[in-house]
Structure formats: structure tokens, C-alpha cells
């Protein structure tokens, strides 16, 4: 039994390690473009120099799982073609290719590893009084803005977005704005329409100077699913059935950001339960057991606001924010524990997740 897992983020790593436990006789190969597991929830630390987001996949994958460091050109009829010319055959595959950024020219995409490394180097080289602009008012943008502002108080840091944390409660939004103000962050309620060197042009017609412009919006997925002939939605995410199998080829499971699962947001809190469910379902298929549809619910969302502040927002199962939230030093500690657990769950294949387990 040959199983190929494409992608070694939270979804792919959980799936591979869990499958190794449940189907020990299977030959599992993980394909990833780099030899490191990237903790995307720590990329803001990587950029600001306050932490690291990479750890070797040899430490994350269970002994006995093969690692192929390459990119995938295409998934064919039982074959995975790699960019190094190799072809891996599979009986089953799990597509966990994640998501990518699609920035305006002139901005560095910071929600992905390559962009984060580029931003880190550029930030280190930026002299005092330099201007850093972060585009995007979601969790990624907020975390990066706060982390840089705290680590480099000698810089001018601004956040540009129509809205800041729109999915959170009004109280949580006020806490975020208060924290960013304490860190001397300027918030500009507008949209970037063009980047011309160090000049940013806004939708309102205003122009701003920026020595370093960071794109903190993750909204696209790799073209691998579409390029391979799998049915996709308008955003390029692979269409799946109730068990997270491709509607085009039921031998292929699709999990994480690149899967079109209604009601799910892009997050490690989504990816890990989906990876666990794919592993459980595939194990049940191999053993001839009845299959259960994927089901999970959210319980909350956490944000880092530098090293000494954070925020935890409660949500209902559908991810709608409740009124209750916590902020401050104790929340920063709790968020750090969540980040550590995210890596632990990936390494062990544990399906228990703050967002709620796969049922």
C-alpha cells in the first residue's frame, strides 16, 4: 500500500504521522518543497527576530515515513510527478498543499516562509526611523505589526486596512487597537491600490512613503489541484465530498487551506482536524469499516500582540465571535502554549485541537 502525502504543513504532517500509527504496514511518503516544517503561527516571530518558525521535518515525521524534498508538478492517475523528474505511484494520496499569497508588485508576502525570510533580512537592514507598512487587518497582519513594533521601537510602523480584526467582537477590536496604539502603530483605514518603489498609493488618493512594505493577506491556493484536473471552485480549492475526498478522484483526499470545505477558514486550527480525519477515514477504508463524514466546530481564535500581550476570543462552532475575550500578559502565555501544542499535535498526529476534534 503506497500512500503519498503532498505538503508537510499542519494538515499533511498530522495526516502522515497519524496514518503511520493506524496503518503501520503502509509505505508513506511525504513530499514537501523544503526539508523544514514551518510553523506559520510563528512567522511573525521569525520576521521580527523574536523567535523561529522552522524545525527539521526529520524531527516532526515518525521514523519510517519517507521524505521527498521536491515540489509536485502534477497529480495524475495514480502518479505524482515531481519537479526533479521522479514519479511516485500511489494507491491513495493526501493533498495538503496549503495556501499562498498574491501580493501587489512591490510588497513582500509575509504569510509564507520565503517571504518571511525576505522580510526578516530587509527588516534587519532597515535603519532607525525607517517606515514599515503592513497591509492587511486580519490576524496575520495584526500579529506581524505588533511583533515588529515591539521588537523595533526605533521604526515607524503602520497598518493599512479597511478594517482591523472584523471577525472579532467589538471589545476584542478595541483591545487590539489599544495595544497597537501603545506600541505607537499608526492605523490607516484605507486600501493600497499601487506600490511604486517607496510610494504607496491608496484608494482615497493619498500617497504614503514606505521603506518596507509587507503583504499580510493570505487568500490564494496553489494551482496544483486545477493543473492536475481535479474539480475546483472559483478560488481554485479542490471540491471534496463529505469525507474530504476529491470529487474527481476518490483516491485523493484534500485537506487544509487548499480544500473547499464550506464554513471552514484558513487556519492551522482547521488544517489539523482535517488531516486527522483524512487519516482516520483512509485507515477505515483500508480496513473495510464504515466511513463517517467530516465534522468539526470552532471554539475560539487567539492572537499574539507582541511578546507581552495577546488575545483569546471565544466563538461558536460556526466561528462567529462571542462577547467573551481575554487579553493581556496571561493571554500571551496562553497563546504561546497553543503554538507549542500545534507543533506537538503535528508531530504526534494527535487529533485533539482547540477548534474541536474531527468527529
Structure description:
- There is one protein chain.
- The longest helix has 20 residues, at 329-348.
- The two termini are 26 Å apart.
- The model is unreliable at 353-359 (pLDDT under 50).
- The strands form 7 sheets. This protein has a 5-stranded parallel sheet with strand order 5-2-1-9-19, covered by helices on one side. A 5-stranded parallel sheet has the order 10-17-11-12-13.
- The protein has helices at 10-22, 43-48, 57-60, 113-125, 139-151, 170-182, 224-227, 268-286, 329-348; strands spanning 2-6, 27-32, 36-38, 54-56, 66-69, 72-75, 79-82, 87-89, 92-95, 108-109, 131-135, 156-160, 185-188, 192-196, 199-202, 207-209, 212-215, 238-239, 252-254, 259-260, 300-304, 310-315, 321-327.
- With 359 residues, it is α/β, with parallel strands linked by helices.
Sum up the structure in keywords.
single chain, 359 residues, alpha/beta, five-stranded parallel sheet, 9 helices
Set down the secondary structure blueprint.
Elements: E1 2-6, H1 10-22, E2 27-32, E3 36-38, H2 43-48, E4 54-56, H3 57-60, E5 66-69, E6 72-75, E7 79-82, E8 87-89, E9 92-95, E10 108-109, H4 113-125, E11 131-135, H5 139-151, E12 156-160, H6 170-182, E13 185-188, E14 192-196, E15 199-202, E16 207-209, E17 212-215, H7 224-227, E18 238-239, E19 252-254, E20 259-260, H8 268-286, E21 300-304, E22 310-315, E23 321-327, H9 329-348
Parallel strand pairs: 1-2, 1-9, 2-5, 9-19, 10-17, 11-12, 11-17, 12-13, 18-20
Antiparallel strand pairs: 3-4, 6-7, 7-8, 14-15, 15-16, 21-22, 22-23
Helix pairs in contact: 1-8, 1-9
